[in-house]
Every structure is written in C-alpha cells, then in structure tokens.
Predict the 3D structure of the following.
Amino acid sequence: MLSSELKPSLARCLKELHLPTVRACYGQEADRARQESLTYEHYLAEVMEREREVRRQNRTQRLLGESKLPLEKSLETFETSRLSSMVTAQLSALLEGSFVERSENVLAFGNPGSGKTHLLCALAQELIHRQGRRLFFTPCSLLVQQLLVAKRDLKLPRLLKGLSKYEVIIIDDIGYVEQNREEMEVLFILLAERYERGSLMITSNLPFSKWERIFKDPMTTAAAIDRLVHHSIILELNLPSYRLEHSTAKQEARTEV
C-alpha cells in the first residue's frame, strides 16, 4: 500500500502531468491489482486505459458540441430500412470515413422529408464517435449570411481560414431559400476554397439541372457543379416524405380508434 508520505507527492505529479483520471483511480486499481496478483505492467495498462477512455469521451463530447449537429438526428433514430440497397451500400462505405482523407464530397438529393438531412447528420455523428473527426453543420441560409457579413467587414479570408480547420462541413438545404447573386457569390468562394482541400456534405431538393436557380449564372453554376462532382459520392434519396408517412399513419390510427 502506498505510504501516506508518498500520496501527496504522487497526486502532485499526476496533477502536473494532467492525468486526472489516473489521479482519481490509481488507489482503487492498486487495491484490485494486489487482490488479483496482477503484474506491474497490467496495473499500469489498466490505469492508463482508464485515462485514455475518459479523454476520448471528453473529446467526443467537445467535438459534438462544436459541430452544431442536431444530435437527435442519429443513426439509431434513422429508419435505414427505407433506403435502397444501393444507398445502404454507399452508407456502409461512407461510415469507414476514408472519403474524408480523399477530400471527397457527399451530395444527398431528394424530395422534402426524404431524410437527407437526417442521414448526413447521422453519418457525421458516427464519424465523430468512431474516428474523432472534426465537422461543422450549418443551414445554407445561415452560412451565406455569415459569409456576407465577413465580406462586408473585410474578414472573409479570416472566416474561410476558420472553416478550413473542419475536415467536413455539412451545408444543409442548398437552394431551399431563394438568394440573390451576391449571396451566391460568397457561397461559390467557399466551394472553391474547399475544392480538393476538405470534404463537403450537402443536401438539396434541387437536381443539378435546376442549380442555375441557385447560382443565377450558367458559368458559375457549371463551375460550382464541376468542383463538387469531381470528387464526390452522390446519394439519391427518391423516397416519400418520412414526415408525411408518419402523419398519415397517426391519422389512420386515430380514425380506427
């Protein structure tokens, strides 16, 4: 058993070395090691594993908070049975996370309520939990306004540099809100800045054939699509509205009662 003289010294060392979990559990683990006749190496591995696990959990929580993801949109709450076999296979491959290293984009298309946002948010959460990836979620309309303000204040390069720290940026609902040419210009700047440098995950109700409504100009539209599609995985969610299905089911249940 550790002597009373050594305990304060050990506690100070662990505090200075920033090992709070080891400081909290070393005594209890030492008692267990003696009872079970564990080797010194086994004891050391146990306390260090406890430290590593707590740090991993804390980092995961920090990354989830920083991501601004809607945490209710998880893989557990997504009805994967609604997906086609092709999209299911694509999702399985995306969960491995290698597309992030290749700076590939994930583009999800489908009707309103088809689950595009939920699916990409669920994928993003899994990348944080499994691999500690750094991601950021934003509605397109909010992102555009932030880019515009930064441009007006001559701080656009600073904002773009801040966004570059994220391995993946999730831009939700491109084209959902009608925006003017100046707004789309700053969005294009971001797309160009991310090209082959970092992944984008994008949802849209509009197929590429209608993206001129977004970027207002044929040349800009073609350039934006070219950058996004060059390294990309496209998810086609041709599904009926999840919200409408559940609303109809509830109404039918009430009628039966």
About this structure: The radius of gyration is 24 Å. The chain has a mean pLDDT of 90.
